[in-house]
Design a protein that fits this description.
Number of strands: 9
Distance between the termini: 45 Å
Length: 376
C-alpha cells in the first residue's frame, strides 16, 4: 500500500515512548450506572464489562448525550462522523468549541469537572496528550488488538486515531503559487501567511513550525530555525496572527495557511482555487491521540464513541476526510478499507520526520520560552 510510509515513520517514533460558567447542574447518572460485570460505567475497561457491544449501546442510549470538544466539521471528516454516530445510536452529540486547541480541551475538562457540560472525550496533539495521561480512563475497544502496538498505550489509556502530513494551503486566485517554504518570505505574501494555532498549545501549529525548521537547516532536535523563520515573517509583515478557519479562508482573510494536509484539502472542496502543498523534502507527519475523560459525565456514551471511531465504519469515515486511519494497513489487508478514499491520501516517497515524545517535550519547552517574543 502507498500509505504505509507514514505508519512506519510514526511507529519508529512512538516506540521510543517508555473557569467556565456553570450552565447546568452536576450529572452523575452515567457514573453511577452499573454494568453487567458490576463495575460502574466510568470504570469499564472494555465492552465486555457491559456484557458486550449490545449492552454498551443500551447503557449509552440511557445517557442520551455525548459531549465532544475541538472537533471542527471540516477536520478529519468529523462533521460526517458526528452525524453518523448520532443517527446510528440516537444519541445527541454536543459539540463545543470546534476551533479550540488541544490545551483548550484539557482546560475545559478541568474547569467543568463534575458538570454535565464537561467533555466526555478528547482528540489531542501528542505533547498535550502525553502531558495529561492522568486525566484519561483506560479502555480497550473491540478492535484494540487490530491497532499496532506503536500507536496505543498498552492499557488503552490513549490510542492514536488518525494521522497526516503538515502542509501549506493557499488560494491561487489571491496569491502566487507556493512552491517552496522560502516563498513565504516574498513581498507578495505580505499579511497573508497564517498558522493554525499557537505552537505551544496546538499540535498542528507545533508541527508547522517543525516543518519550517527542517527547511531552514534545523532538525527534530533543533526547532530554533523554525522560530527564527517566523520572526522574519513577522518582521516582514507577512505573518498574519489570525487562527484560520473555513470562514477566514472562504472570505480571503487567510489566503495562505500552514496546517495539516487533510484540513487544507477539505477547503479545496469548497474553494476550487485552494491548493495544497506537502513539501516532500521536509515532510512532517503526526498522529492525534484519542482518549476518554476519566470524569466524563456520559461514560458509557464516551466508550461507545471510541468503539465507533475504531470500527470499520468510523475508520473509513476518517479516510474519507483525507486522513490516514490508524487501522488502515489491517483494513487494507482484509479488504475493508475504502479503496477510493485510500487513493486520495498523500504519498510521500522520501523520509518522513516524526518527533518522539521526548523530542516534542524539548521542542515545546523551547517554544514556550521563545515563540511569543519571535512573533512580537
Amino acid at each position: 500500500m502507498k500509505i504505509t510510509s507514514l505508519a512506519a515513520a510514526l511507529a519508529a517514533s512512538v516506540l521510543l515512548l517508555a473557569g467556565s460558567v456553570a450552565c447546568a447542574p452536576p450529572d452523575k447518572s452515567g457514573d453511577g450506572q452499573q454494568t453487567q460485570s458490576g463495575v460502574k460505567a466510568a470504570e469499564a475497561t472494555s465492552a465486555e464489562d457491559f456484557g458486550g457491544i449490545d449492552g454498551l449501546v443500551e447503557a449509552a442510549k440511557n445517557e442520551r448525550e455525548l459531549n465532544v470538544i475541538a472537533l471542527p466539521p471540516d477536520w478529519a471528516n468529523y462533521g460526517a462522523i458526528i452525524k453518523a454516530f448520532s443517527d446510528k445510536y440516537g444519541i445527541k452529540v454536543n459539540s463545543a468549541q470546534p476551533d479550540a486547541s488541544s490545551q483548550d480541551e484539557i482546560n475545559a475538562a478541568n474547569q467543568q469537572r463534575g458538570r454535565s457540560t464537561a467533555p466526555d472525550v478528547f482528540d489531542l496533539g501528542q505533547s498535550v496528550a502525553l502531558a495529561n495521561t492522568e486525566m484519561f480512563a483506560p479502555y480497550k475497544v473491540v478492535n484494540f488488538d487490530d491497532i499496532p502496538a506503536a500507536f496505543k498505550d498498552a492499557e488503552g489509556t490513549w490510542v492514536n486515531d488518525y494521522g497526516g502530513y503538515m502542509s501549506i494551503g493557499f488560494d491561487s486566485a489571491k496569491v502566487p503559487p507556493v512552491t517552496r517554504i522560502d516563498d513565504l518570505l516574498k513581498p507578495e505574501y505580505r499579511g497573508k501567511v497564517a498558522l493554525n494555532g499557537d505552537p505551544t498549545q496546538a499540535g498542528a501549529a507545533f508541527s508547522g513550525v517543525l516543518m519550517v525548521a527542517l527547511s531552514q537547516g534545523g532538525s527534530v532536535d533543533d526547532i530554533a530555525p523554525g522560530v527564527e523563520f517566523f520572526r522574519k515573517l513577522a518582521d516582514a509583515g507577512n505573518f498574519l496572527p489570525v487562527d484560520p478557519t473555513p470562514a477566514t479562508i472562504g472570505s480571503g482573510q487567510t489566503p495562505v495557511v500552514i496546517d495539516w494536509n487533510y484540513t487544507n484539502a477539505a477547503q479545496s472542496k469548497k474553494l476550487p482555487s485552494w491548493q495544497v502543498l506537502v513539501p516532500p523534502e521536509y515532510a512532517v507527519a503526526g498522529y492525534y491521540y484519542q482518549a476518554i475523560n476519566k470524569d466524563a459525565p456520559h461514560p458509557a456514551a464516551a466508550r461507545l464513541w471510541q468503539e465507533f471511531l475504531y470500527s470499520d465504519e468510523g475508520q473509513n469515515l476518517f479516510a474519507l476526510g483525507g486522513v490516514r486511519p490508524v487501522r488502515a494497513d489491517n483494513m487494507a489487508t482484509d479488504g475493508t478499507l475504502d479503496k477510493a478514499a485510500a487513493q486520495t491520501l498523500p504519498v510521500i516517497d522520501g523520509p518522513v520526520t516524526v518527533p518522539s515524545p521526548q523530542q516534542t517535550e524539548a521542542a515545546t519547552k523551547y517554544l514556550s520560552e521563545h515563540w511569543a517574543a519571535a512573533i512580537g
